Amino acid sequence: MKKYIYVSLLSLVLASCAKDFLNTEPHEFTDAVFWKTAEQAESALAGAYSPLQDEEALGGEEWCSMEAFSDNGYMNDPYGDFVAMAEFRALQNTEGDLSLNSYKSYFRTIKRATDVLTYVPGIAMDNNQKQRILGEANFLLGFAYFQQANRYGGLPIYDPNNAESSLVRATEAETWQAIEKSVIEATKQLSWEHEAGRPGLGAAYGLLAKVYAYQSKWAEAKSAAEMVISSGKHSLYPNYAELFTIEHETESEILWGLGARFGEYPITPILLLPNNVWGGTHDEQTGVGWRLVSATDSFYKSYQDGDKRKSATVAKKGIDVITYNGSTDVIVAPNNQSPVVCVKYMSPYAASYTDWAAGLDVPVLRYSDILLLHAEAIINLGGGGPANRTAGVAAAATSFNMVRQRAGLASIASPNFNDLMYERRMELAFEGGDRHFDLVRWGMAAEVYNNLAAEGSYKPARTFIPATHRLLPYPQREIDNSGGSITQNTGYSGGK
Predict the structure, then answer these.
(1) Is 459 a member of any domain?
(2) Spatial separation of the C-alpha atoms in residues 35 and 165, rounded to whole Å
(3) Residue 96: other Cβ atoms inside 10 A
(4) How far is it, in rounded angstroms, from Cα 173 to Cα 372?
(5) Residues 114 and 57 both lie in one domain
(6) pLDDT at residue 33, as a whole number
(7) Are 165 and 482 in contact (CB under 8 A)?
(8) What is d(CA 378, CA 372) in angstroms, rounded to the nearest whole number?
(9) DSSP per-residue string spanning 142-202
């Protein structure tokens, strides 16, 4: 089935400026006959968006399942190879579904975005339209590489003029340099004003701040974040829980979200929905939820008193009240392995169960993330950070407390790195695995993971070895298909 990226029908109603650009038939080829008109350029750009909708990319399983690598969640479903990676006991990556298909989807975006950047400059068309197309392509290219670099490190850098480019991994440094280049170009080409579903300049500077932070380039991260903050184009929406509803999925806090439409991809809500919410106490259509990923009890217990994000993110069986399929009661969820369910994306099913793809956008990049990255950069520049976690830095308070106050928590005059760790964990939980990637880049994954007691059989005690487990094992099928020119990551079977 062809998959396209698009804004939801409701988003089209809410954002009158939005066009139906995401229903454009994506072009698959790079023949000389094709790259002639503005319409063809738009079609090619749509083709760069569409792989992100795939079930194993931003559109579903792998995006949700990265939370199982952290201390926030685990996988209910028996994806044995992926679970082995999340439990840091895999020797190679033979997962033929989640990780492999995600890798392939992101590289389809990389290939198609690069083709746009290669061929569209030669098309005679309106220059503003051309710059916007090139800016979106650069953003998508940088974003796709960023997602994969966090997982695998050095990557093949696709070059349409070099057939061998897809068969050799660049170094990590070269890969991050390519990411920076693409995103910086996007900041020169995009505008603050943009259609719903497209990244604008806020998304480009936000992603750039994140790219810099992941490399500990704190002055650059601070500067990029301040471009978003000072623009006045983005702000925190006052109600955290409402952000994850169809009615509010296009608020200015969402710098960029992956558009959804009812009955199509992405499918995030169904992946986290329990397959039996009420356990027979109320009417429901049982078996509809995939319960692919759930929350740990230790995560549930980690919230500070009064944190409003708790009830918006998780619910504990037999304790917390939720609304599902027209009933409001204490959640039962008898088939969930842990006592805690992630409810962050359940709002489309509050009135009634509708469809496996409920039409809720995926919140890829939010303003609150950028505020916290800004605070993190200031803390590190002010003498705090992973190596000095209790050093308070008053200059970070403004950005930091905007996020904290919305959560219903008291301000902190001089937030330290421990405070920052808490806020990032609770603010971004179940949004693509930020908790794990944060702990890895901070050099703290071993300290946190190796000291966690087991929770039943669903979240065993784990041993994280930084030299190996900071990256996932490279997909074995890609290594095999390359004839060995693509090599395995250090510490895994076949790696150096």
Answers:
(1) no
(2) 22
(3) 14
(4) 25
(5) yes
(6) 67
(7) no
(8) 10
(9) HHHHHHHHHHHSS-----TT-TTGGGSPPPHHHHHHHHHHHHHHHHHH--SS--TTS--HH
Q: How confident is the model at residue 163 (pLDDT cuts 50, 70, 90)?
A: confident
Which residues is 236 bridged to in the sheet? none
Amino acid at 55: E
Does residue 488 sit within a domain?
Answer: no
Which amino acid type is present at position 300?
Y
Scan for tokens 């998304």, then name that residue. 203
Q: How many CA atoms within 13 Å lie on the side-chain side of 272?
A: 36
Q: Reduced to 3 DSSP states, what percent helix, strand and coil does the chain have, rounded to the nearest 5? A: 45, 5, 45
Considering the chain, what percentage of its residues have pLDDT values greater than 90? 86
pTM for this model (two decimals) = 0.93
User: Are 249 and 118 found together in one domain?
Assistant: yes
Length, in residues, of the chain: 496
Q: Is the peptide bond before 266 cis (omega within 30 degrees of 0)?
A: yes
Calculate ∠ Cα 89-92-98, nearest 5°.
Answer: 90
Distance of CA 482 to the CA centre of its chain: 28
Q: ∠ CA(487), CA(493), CA(495), 5° rounding? A: 35
For residue 342, give the amino acid letter.
C
- Are the C-beta atoms of residues 332 and 276 closer than 8 Å to each other? yes
Residue labelled with tokens 């895999």: 90
Does residue 461 sit within a domain?
no
Name the one residue in this structure whose structure tokens are 């939370």: 67
Q: Are 473 and 92 in contact (CB under 8 A)?
A: yes
Q: Note down the domain range covering 184.
A: 9-259+474-479
Judge whether residue 164 has pLDDT over 90.
no
pLDDT digits (tens, 9 = 90+) for 430-446: 999 999 999 999 999 99
